[in-house]
Every structure is written in structure tokens, then in C-alpha cells.
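Reopening closed ticket. The problem is back. First fold of the pair:
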Amino acid sequence: MGAVEEMSGRIVLRGGRVVSTEQNSLRSLGEQGLVSADVAIEHGVITEVGGVEPRDGDRVIDCTGRLVLPGFIDAHSHADGLVADDDVQLALLRQGVTTVITGQDGVSYVPGDGGYAAEYFAAINGGRPANAGSTVADYLASVDGTTRVNVGYLVPAGTVRFTVCGRSSGEADATELAAMVELVQQGLAEGALGLSTGLDYVPGQFQSTREIAALCVPVALAGGVYVSHMRGGYEANSRAGTEEIGRIAQLAHDATGRALPVHVSHLHADADIVLGALDALAAEGHDASFDAYPYIRGCSLLAMPLLPPALSAQPVDDVVRVLSDPDERERLRRDWFPEVARNPSLGPQWPSMITLAHVAAPEYEWALGLTLDEGSKRAGVDAVTFALDVMRASRLRTNMVMAVQNPRPVSELARIFAHPGHVGGSDGIFIGGHPHPRARGTFPRFLREYVRETGTWSWADAVRHLSASPASRFGLGDRGRIAPGAVADVIVVDPDAVADRATYDEPLREAVGIDDVLVAGVQVLAGGELARGEAAGGEPARGPLPGRGLRRERAANREGAAR
């Protein structure tokens, strides 16, 4: 299984059901919005939907008992440096994800030489690809024809600031700000979908509201989207974070006369807080959307909550020297770790809430999957000592899964996911031997838990949240629908079997129930395995690799942005 011939002829998906994209017809299709239909694909585009009779030379895929849906778009992915990796592609395609949006949280590899991201965010995004180049155009070109999935990119504001201002924590002066604005303009002109910030990371923590608003002026003018990991740690502080997003949008509007669409990354808090914050943005006239994943726990750099921002901003060699100095370690224990214990997301029980997912130090591989409390006891030291030792040994290349103090039930998450501004985003991190299960389970979990089991969504709703709305929101052209003229990014879903299998204990298990996937009309997943062509001598080739870097565009038949 898995070997298919890349054909230039027509493909017919026969005997399945599709979600109608015609709003008027949904009323007659029942609450699921499904209709029996064949789908014909030629030259990368859907050409017919309905009763399609196969012709000589057609390749027919039997979809009896299954749904033919537009490929899912992961609105928040950290596959930046890993999209060419077969294992990562398999993890995405088994979930039905055909497009990922990268450049998240204000940190990635371009513009600039990528050194900062490769150092600071390697435990999140992976190592910098050798062919990433130094511009958005370079990065997107490096994706073309090298992967089975599509990749969109946001200009990362932290990378922009570092490229211009280095490690400075001060306000940018006029010359520096103008240089940053120019880099954002260039990235947008080269196809970036918008601008991202990571205001709990560095140097995002040092960027003022006015600085970010200035960087958003070219975003508004270009019709892009401002995407933000908000300031302040989310949860109970989410309202303050969205209020700042609203101020940024208003300042950009005042400067341009154009509305700035805004998007909140991985929005997690109690449903009343989330919905209240979104209602407040809407009441102020802002066009706001957000992504959220169907899990309670988060995942990030271990250093983010456990080291002072000013220290994290320093070169890794300098940080390692601090972590190796007994006096400096004692100072951190005395002056900083009481602040960690007062962090509202963690509290004094922080050692039992943080589980090690990745440690780039072989001597600590035994600790993967253990909490800091468990690891420290096995190592025979206290939790502060253990945490500092791990960060020192890994040169900060450590990520972790973080529990929350008040886990939310499925019913409360359902209230959040029912909001029309929601789109699916995994925040998937593929680095580590014991990663967060969201990297391999987010989209099948949506289908299993919120369509099949709770009925929060119909199948038509699932297509809107996971395909149509993000395609529209981020300017991805004619994607996100099964209709003539649409790009043939298509998945075939078994509605009764689709499910996530990755868990916190076994996070590397692949999803089930999505076995056949096409990208640009080329089958890239066949029978649950990566499709491969034939190389010379009859050996399997790595391809086909129809994925491409997606440049911002407007669809001819575009649905309205998520609101």
C-alpha cells in the first residue's frame, strides 16, 4: 500500500457524500448539510460535483460510506522547519490537514538570517531549513515542490524586531521603527498572509502597543490579518489581552482608514471570559476571529515561565553561564522562583503541572513524560535545581506540556467552538519524544468529539470551522470547499471511524479514519500511507510532492471572513 502513480488524467471520487457549499440548499439537506455526490478532479481543480460517469483512463477512488470534504487548514502550526519531514507530513495528512499556517507567535526564520529563531525557538519550530533563505519569498519558494502539504506564512513581528533592534528591550526609535515597517511591507508584498506577535515571548514582551500598531499599518493596507499570541498569559487575563488587540486595530484603522482584521491565537480561558472578550471586540466594530484546540493543557518552551524575560533574551551562551553559576542560581531561586509560584496559570504547585516533552540533552532522555516534580525526585534534587539543570544541559532547547489549574469539561469547550469566529488550530509542536498530543490529534478529535459524539457541530459546521472560514480569513484563494473551480485539496473521511489516538501518555499515535488525501489533485495519502511514485530502477520515490508555499490571494467565490 501507499505507492500510487502520479497521473495527469482525471480522478473521480465516487460514491461518497459531500457538504453542500450552497447556503440555500443546506436547508433542504438536513442538519448535517450532506448530499450524495461524485467529485471529478482534473489538473488540480475540482471540475464536477454530482453524478459523474467515469471515462476510460480515469482513476476512480471508491468513497462509498465516506465523506468527501475540503482539506483542513491548520490556522496555527509550528511545522515551520519540519514541513519537508515525512513523519510530520504523515501526522498532518492522517488528520486531514492539507495546509498549515506558520510564522506564528512572532518568531520564525525570516526575514533576516534566522539565527535568533534557530536559537530561541528551535524547541518549538525545529531547526532552520538550509534553504529557508532570508526573505518571505525565499521561505515560500523553499516549500514549493518539497512537501505534500501547503504552507502559508505570517511575518513574525519578534523576528522583525530582532533583525532591526537586536536584543534591545527598549522602545524602538523612529529609524528602527521605519526599518521594521519596511520589512513587514516587503513580507506582505512577497505573499505573507499577515503579521504575528508573541507577546509572552521575547522580544515580543518588549514591543509596545504603539510599535505593534505601526507594524500593522501595512497589514491593513494590504488586506492581511493581525494574528496575536496575546500579552499576559491568557486565562483570567484574556480580556486585557483582547483589549490591547482592539487598541492595535483601532490605531491601525486611524492611520489608514481601513479596518484591520484581527485573530487571537490559541484562545483558552473559561467560556464566559472568551465569549465576553469576543463580544467586546465585536461591539467596538472589530472584525475578530480566533483559533482554539480541543485540549485543556498547553505546551511551550520550558524557559518561558521558568526564566526571567530579560535573561531569556540573552544569547544562549550567556544564559548557560548564568545557569552554571552557583551564585546566579541562588539568586534565581530567591528572587525569581517566588514569581513563578505566583503565576496565576501555575501557582505554587508548578513542579507537578509541567511535564517534559523534549529535552535536547541525551542524559535527560529518561525524564521525557515526567513532571518536574517526578523528575526531580528521581534525580535526587529539588524541583528548582532539576529545572535549572535541564535547561542548562539542553542549552534551553526544552519544551513542556503544561496542565491548568481548572480543567474545562467538553461542554464548556463546546460553547467556545460554537462561536462563528472560531477556526481550527492545533498549535502543533512536533519536536520531542513525548510531545503534546494536539500535534497528531486535533482535527480528528474535533470530528469525533464535537460532531459525532456531542453534536456541537454538524458536518457542514465542521467544514466551515476547519476549512472554509480559515481559507477565507487568511486569503488562501479557492480552497475550503467542494465545488467546481475550487483547488482540489480534498480528504476522504470515514464519519463513523475518524478519531484521535494520541493521548498525553501515548502522544505519538497517529489518527485513524482519514486514509485518502489529495493536494492540488494529487493523491498524497493512499490507504493511510504516504503516497510514493517510482524512481529509476523501480525503487519507491519520495514523492509526489505537490505542496506549495501559499501566497495571499482572494478567491473568485470567496465566503465572508469568520466573524
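Second fold of the pair, where the issue appears:
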Amino acid sequence: MSFMNPVSEMRRTLAVLAAGLALVLAGAHPLAAEPANPEMADSISPYLRLHAEDPVQWRAWDRDLLDEARESGRPLLISSGYFSCHYCHVMHEESFLDQGIAERLNEHFIPVKLDREVHTALDTYLLEFQRATGGSAGWPLNVVVMPEGHALTGVVYAPRDGFADFLDGVVERLTADEERLAELAAAGSRELEQRLRDGEKPLSAERAARLPDVLWSRMEREADDLGGGFGQETRFPHSPYLDALLTAQEDTRAPDWVGEFLSITLEEMAGSGLRDVLGGGFFRYSETPDWGTPHFEIMLEDQAQLARVYLRAGELFGREDWTRIGLETLDFVGREMALRDSDPGAAVAPESDFRGFASSLSALDDEGREGGAYLWPGSALEAALEDHPEPELVRARFGMDGSPSFSDGHLPADGMDTAALAERFDLDEDRVREYVDRGREALIEARQERGLPRDEKVLTGAHGMLLSALAEAVRQDLGEEYETMGRDVRDWLASRADEPEDLPALLGLPAKEVGPATLPDYAYVARGLHDWDAATDSGDGERVRALLRTAWTRFSGEDGFRTTEDPPLPGMIAERFHPAVHRPSGATAILQLTAEHAAADADLESALADYPLEPGQGIESNPLHHAGLILWLEERGDEG
């Protein structure tokens, strides 16, 4: 996935390598008895396994690689991405399978392949570097890191020739004056660190008091009041922003425009191309502001956040249709992302039948076609509805009765409603609903036969987010199935949280194999258990407090919170407040939960009392990234 809008010629199909890609995804290759890159082939990450047969001599991330870089005089080229990312697959085909690119990387760099969901702290830092130096960032992300550990330069997705030019330019400059470049990289690292430090400088009391007004002004300016969402081109759901808006609306602190904006945004996201209206899941983002041109990766953390948003909004606004969308999203997770006994290579907890949920579904089907699992060519649509009494009604309901919206076929969307269909086809509304349900079932059944590769890593933090969404469904008493599903997630998380010092980043695998959990992992698990306890009286309060105490001990210091206990690169510093853009802020969540549990725990009460909560200049500069924090600080001030 890239935050860029590459031109159309960059968006080439991967069908040429379809057969080979399918075998690689399964961990095999038709031409090689042994993998070219054993570290990739043996990885727990399917994204790394995807690169097992590349001519690039990839290495898995390890801090010892910096020692190797110093000894060899070669910088690292860290390439970060994830399995379900469309442009990660495109760059794999165009560049990392190319012999010329491989020769450049193998000779002049130590090539490192990084799964951003496994090494989230390092990936986040590299993203911040790229955003600060390049203006935008995304995946696949490729950053040159000098042997001393300082990032030098980077590039996101680029076609083969552009990436070759990037590498040649770096090599040319290194050859001409490597010492000077090392100094520039170190200076850039210090400058980025100083920028973060400057952002931490507390605002005056007067400016801090105006932060809610600053937030609402910036939000209103960046909100699209016609199409919903934020931004000008590429359109993400930005679940943390929506969550903050719902909180303010519940507390009657939101400006008048917020209710209508939320309504437009939730309507557009649910009925457009951002959502799989047949199955119920949400895609990662849309390239266009009308939400209609998605990249088709589906992430567990997005489903969890958006399910909770729609359930909260449904209750707040009395909208049963939004509640239904939230439940359909949870149903989608249970149906399409659950790991079962028959799943080969699933991350398994031996003592339990519950195996968790896949971290993501690929944007590409098993033939290498982007969106191939979701798009409907005319012939496939006709075949799926062959036995339906009113196929045209089904087409009209799901917006597939006109010209296809994509070159590979129709993407189902919200089309005609029940009343309009009843009038057009001269049927009563009960019969229309019956036909729509039969059509949906037929289409989903036909779609089940299509291959859709999954990333079967079981992410600890994402399961914490999912538990919060399931807790919301249980709190509203929306169905026993969600309590059953939530109990499975809660029990698995609780068993890991009983030893908070050893909480792993991935569930179902020993922590020593995957590394310890990060600050956000602790925050999301603690929040999930807290929300479940509030909804079910499960008795998880002390478990939550143990997680919080461990998080404070492990990640906090004089300068704030570190994302990871042992930062892998020198510029990764602690900050008092972390942003929340596509996922909640781990630091803010820890602070909020600590405040809720401080009365029952003297250590937590002391930790919060000693923490400098004065907002800094960086929050004033980027209020949307700290919307939840600003509202929480305002609430504390009102109470205080």
C-alpha cells in the first residue's frame, strides 16, 4: 500500500507470475529444491516468505546487522511492507525479482526485509523519517540506513527503473563521499529528534485551553462535508478521528456540524467501494475521495475499529442500519478471518481450540489479480445467479446493473433500496427482501470458491481492539454469538496477560520467537479487557492493572513513553504523547486507562500524578492526530 497515487502504467497485473506466486504463497517454488533465502523461507511472516526465492539476498531484521554493516562498509536497505499490501506485491514483481535490481542491492547494501506488523516500532520510526524528509510515506517503504544506525534517504513504491535510479544515485553519492553522507544522516537524525523535542515543549495555559477550539477548527476545515471523511484525494476511514467525534457527540461537546458530518461519512463508507457490501468487511482505503476506488487489502485492526464505530454510532443516533453494519463487520471477521483446525500453518495455541483471527486478507487473489476475489465479470455474475428467479433485481440491489466500475468487473455497492426495488419489479417488499437474501447467499457461495490468501499471523494488539468491539456488541445485548466470540478472544488474551512481563507481539507463539509486545500492544489488550469487564463483569480489573503497571515500568521514562523497550535505532526517542492516525495512540490509551484504574492502585495513581500532562506544541500543530487526547484533557480539566 502506498499513500501515493501512482500513474496507471504502474498498476500492472501480476498475472504473468500467477502460478509461481501461488506456489510461493504456499511456501514452495517450481524451480528450486531449496529456497534462495532461507531466512525468508523459515519466517513466521508470509510477507517474508513471499521473498524466499528472490535473487535479492534478503536478511531478516536483527540489530546485529548494524555490526555487520560497520564491518562490511555497506549500509542497510530496509524494505518494509506487509502481506496484504497491493503495491508491495507490485514492487516484488517489478523490482525484487529483477536481476539488475538484485545485483545492485546485493553488491552495495545489506538488504533487509521487514514485516511492518512484526516490527511495528521500527517501521513507525522509518515512516516518520520518510514523512519528514519526503513529504509522504507508505508501503512498500525502502529506507537506506547507514552503519551507525542513522537513516539517510528513502523511497516508497517506485517502478523498476525509478527504483534502479534511486539505488544508483545512493551508490554514486556513497562512492564520492561516504563520510560526508554519514555525517548528514547523523545530522538528519538529530534534527528529527530535535523537532520531536520541540513539539514536546508545553504550551502556555492560555494556548492549552484553546486546544479544543483549534481541533474543531482544523477538523471542520479538513472535513469533506459532501463526501465524508478527511483529506483531498486518498481517503482513509481514520477510525481514531471518528471515535473522537462520537465521544464528543455523546458528551454534547461537539459543534453543530459534527452530527451531519458523521452521518455523511458513515453512509458513504458503508455504501461505497470502501466496504464489501456482500461479505461485510471494510477495505483499507480508497485512492479517490468518493470512496469508490479501494485497494482491496482487509486488515483485522480496521474491522475491529470500524465495527465499534458503527455500533456506537448506531446506538447514539438510533440508526439500526448502522448497528447492522457493525454486526456484519464482526460476522465477516468470524467467517472470513477465523483460523480453524483445517488451516495449514495457522498460529496455534496448543492448549486451546481457539486459534484467533488472521491479521489480514490479501489485496490479490491466488491468481495475482488485485481485487479478483471481490470483482464480478459479467460471465461470473450470470453463472452465480443462474438459478435465481430475479437476477436483475439482485444486480440492481448491489449496483451491478450498469457498466462495470472496474476493468475486471463490477464491485458490489449499495444500489436500489427495498422500496424502489418493489416498485420497479412489481413485488411486495417481503418478497424483495427474500430475493435479495437469496441473491446475496448465492454470490457469497460462488465467491467462496475463489482463492484469497490470508496472513495468518495472530496479532496481539489487533485482538485487543477486536475484544473492545465485541464488548460493545455485548454491552448493547446484540446477540449471544458475539458474547461467545468475545469470550474466546478474552480467554486467550487473559491467559497471556496473566504473565504481563512476557506478553508476546503475536499470539499462539512463544514471545522469544517473535519478540515482546510493544506499548500499543499492551494498551490495546488492556483496553479490550477493560471494556469486556465493563460489559460482562468478568473480573479482569486486576489483570488490566497488571498490564498497566508493566507498561509504565517497561516503556516510560523522564521524556515520556517509548514504543518499544529497547529501540533498535538511535533516533527512536521517547515522547510524552503519540499520534493516533489510523490506529489508537498507545500512550493516550495507557494514560486514559491509568486514570480509570488509579483509585484502585497506588502505583498507577503515583505514575499518573508524576506524568507531565501539559500538551505540547506538536499537539497544537497536528490536533487531528491527537483528537482523543485533546478531548480527554478537556474532560479532566472540566472535572478538576
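Update: turned out to be a display glitch only; the data is intact. The chain has three domains: 8-200, 207-365+455-635, 378-449. Confidence is low (pLDDT under 50) at residues 1-33, 343-351. Please close again.
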